[in-house]
Amino acid sequence: MERAVYYDRKQPGYPPRLLELERMPAGLYVIGTLPEPADKSVAIVGARSCSDYGRKEAVRFARELAKNGVQIISGLAYGIDAWAHWGALEGGGRTFAVLGSGADVCYPRANYPLYRRIIREGGGILSEFAPGSPPAAWHFPLRNRIISGLADLVLVVEARKKSGALITVDYALEQGKSVYAVPGRLGDPLSEGCNLLLAQGAAPACSPEQLLEELGISAAAKDCGSRIRETERLEKNLRELCAQLQAGPAGLVKLREALGWELGKLSSAIVDLQLQGYIEELQPGIYRLVSR
Question: Residue 214 burial by CB count (10 A; 0-12/13-18/19+): exposed, middle or buried?
């Protein structure tokens, strides 16, 4: 485990975005790197117990933004946070997690593979709390001001009416940041927070391109030689599995339901595609199509 580096507010290296804001910490502990001040950043937050819809949208937005050089900021929590980090990594970009514990304390522990990969692929783990500090309930609302402070805009993908993600929104508005929300289904408790934000004037997030335009970035042209085209040479059942994963990572249960296959057939196809380098296991039982 790397040791955390301390960046004092009064010394070089402290994030310039935070220097411009009030009520920011006197210093930050960092494992890995800090976000590049010159690059655009988007904070993606939302429900811990997210739906399949929320998962897909978090991955889609983060992946496409990352492909276009946008840094993704979130909190490493279960649900939307974790999927946003994974989406950014899938897009070949850098992502940064702000923790409610010491930077050397991965919480939740189940996200340790993600924690390590964020560092390995050029991102960073940040915290205002000293190394070794355990997670505490009051830490998490406090760290949200750093998540929004590091970003140019905040995107809420899915949130309940009293979600902690809305605390991040309050900080963002105080800081003069734009807030976007992914529209949700009426009557769905997981979408009540987003729909409330839209009713109060937040901008509806209908596509990653919309956010890129807000950031002044032109979306990269579609790659005609994309990975999904390469699967055309595969056997039919392998192509079908790849097609299911094109929309984003998926678990065994969802894949079985979508394809209608027996577990043995699905497991065999997964192993075959892994050996050929077409898919990889993000975490136990969750698979994704490997970018070209």
Answer: middle
Retrieve residue 155's tokens. 């995107």
- Is residue 186 classed exposed, middle or buried when 0-12, 13-18 and 19+ CB atoms within 10 A define those classes? exposed
List pLDDT tens digits, range 194-204: 999 999 999 99
Measured CA to CA, the distance from residue 21 to residue 24 in angstroms comes to 7
Closest to 127 (Cα-Cα) out of 265, 27, 203: 27
- State the angle between helix axes of 263-275 and 236-245 in degrees (0 to 180), rounded to the nearest 10: 80
Check if the beta carbon of residue 123 is closer than 8 Å to that of residue 100: no
Comparing CA positions, the residue from 28, 26, 40, 67 lying closest to residue 151 is 40
Per-residue pLDDT tens over the stretch 147-204: 999 999 999 999 998 888 999 999 999 999 999 999 988 888 988 999 999 999 999 9
Taking the C-alpha atoms of residue 83 and residue 94, their distance in angstroms, rounded to an integer, is: 14
How far, CA to CA in Å, does 169 sit from each of 102, 149, 211?
Answer: 23, 11, 16
The Cα–Cα gap between 134 and 132 comes to 6
- The per-residue b/e assignment along 256-278, b for 16 or more CB within 10 angstroms, e otherwise, is eeebebeeeebeebbebbeeeeb
